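Input record (one chain):
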Amino acid sequence: MRVAFLIACYVIITLLSILNPMTAVLYYTGISIIRPEMLTWGGTAIKHLFPISMATIIFSTYSRGRFSLTRVFDFQFASFMLFIITLIVSTYVSSYENIDSGKYNKILLLIFAMCVLLKMNLIEMNLIRKYYKYTVAFLAFIGLWGAQQWLHGNPDMEGLFGSFVKDRCGICAIFILYYPVALFFAIKSRSFTERLFGIAASLLFLADIVFTNSRAGFIGMSLSALFLMRFVKRKFALLICLVPALLIVLTILPEKYIQRVNMLTDKHIADTENPLDGSAAGRLVVWQGGLRVFMQNPLIGVGTMNSPEAIWLMGDEFSGKIDPELWKYLFASPELRLAIHNTFIEVFAEGGIIGALGFYLFILTSMIRGMEVSRYRGGNEELGEIVILYRCVKAGLLGYCVAAFFANMRYVDFFYWQLIILPVIAAQGLKMAGQVPASDPKKTIPHLAPLSPPLKGADATCR
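The corresponding structure, as predicted from the sequence alone:
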């Protein structure tokens, strides 16, 4: 009965999505967050929902005259394509075999398609704001679900995003990615209801970050908060307000979370069930293995999802050089293959220097394009709103990157979506300021007269 009801709902939403590309974008975003397999308790009855939803976005975008590859394709997309093509070629020619390689390459292709469609459809600030409001709402639903699981016996909320993201580091990183966006609605609300929504979502995401007990998440969240504090004018007053709040929070933090944060400086293996949990030693060994895999396959790497097997086969090289118990945990079991637990080293190991070049250029282009909009100071309310959203999205991305340094999160599509949307937000700010991206990076955005109405439909661009 549950599955039949869900199928009926998805059919109705699909039909509505055909008529409106923004509805289609929100539809795909929604099922990416609230996964169909979660609502069907692991069932596969709706497993074809993602390609169907993607097809509706393409059709509705084309029917509205927004489908133009030449308008959105740029250096950032070229870098992303280089990364994906390198991984596909590397997987095809690799001497290693992994049954999941093809699946994850298809995921990257879907991510690329969604990035293109997001840039085609998020053509004005109101649409970007609407997109984020629904995204935060979807994540708030998952956040409440996660809190309920935490209270009823799932201490780390693992498996919260279904089969897509199972590890607590990945779950935590997603909430870090969108926590500043939720904070944006608390800061720049257009109504009292929206402010309450932003405050509630921010507190919920913060609680979920703590519930995962992720040490990487603690570091990523701290960096994200520090980045946002750079733009607070009255920093001393903020600290006076934060100190008592932090003291209250420390009194209610779960003991397990405090213990795991303290493990950041623990040099001994304290957990007999999982030697890696009490020490960074095991993770460092796997990182070394990932770098050795890269040095042996420097051009295009070993292919998608093949690095764990390649590292495991290097076990003899570490014998006698690391703690014997740690070696047994990492290399003795013929069934156990540990991932690198570092997204950025994993990119080098599986994509080589060519794939890594595309991946890093994709990130760097997003972070620096239009960054001068972040320095705006003035009384233009609409432009000020864009500036704050830009800073919040970038803060989330920085925190996510820190968490990704300690986990495998290369296939989390939300990360790539945010990297595409960030320069789109910057472009909206520059357009509102009445200028094109300045060649002089020190040039600041001037104070301007009232804004002209935003462009509508296919004629509006993000450039």
